[in-house]
Fold this protein.
Amino acid sequence: MTAKTKQNQQAFSLVEVIVFMTLVSLVLISAVGFTMQLVHTMSYNQHKLYATHYVQDLKEWLDGEREADWVAFQNYATVAGRTYCANNAIAIANTLASLPVFNTSTCGFTGVGSQDPRIFRRTLTMRKDVAGTATRVTATITVTWMEDNVQRTETIDTVYSLWQ
């Protein structure tokens, strides 16, 4: 007579495997979503840093233009405000005369100078307090870029006045 031995086999049931795979999938999907959001935030911060640099670059150059010749400087402003396209790289030898008057067809989101990424547009708007020789000129420097179909801007307003 032979004795029948009963073997205990241990294994996961199909339900346990499905539950485990569901939990692992949820964790991985959450990690991918977090990583995508992190990459998007890093990209935005990098573009904002570029824009801030481009604003400060033009402001420093404009400070020099103001110091060089107040009369010429204020002549580029109007009471209503005149906007210039400043997408080109600004050199010390440049003057306000080298900035073209803003036109949407010629001043696009082509970048500033030869710097990448080429998604920025930099403008300068100059307003003066009186129609004649001004004692105050307000300069608004704006860098605009498109990101995720949203227009983003970095702006600085500076008031220049006549030194007595």
In short: The chain has a mean pLDDT of 90. Helices lie at 14-68, 70-75. The beta strands are 82-85, 120-128, 136-147, 150-161.
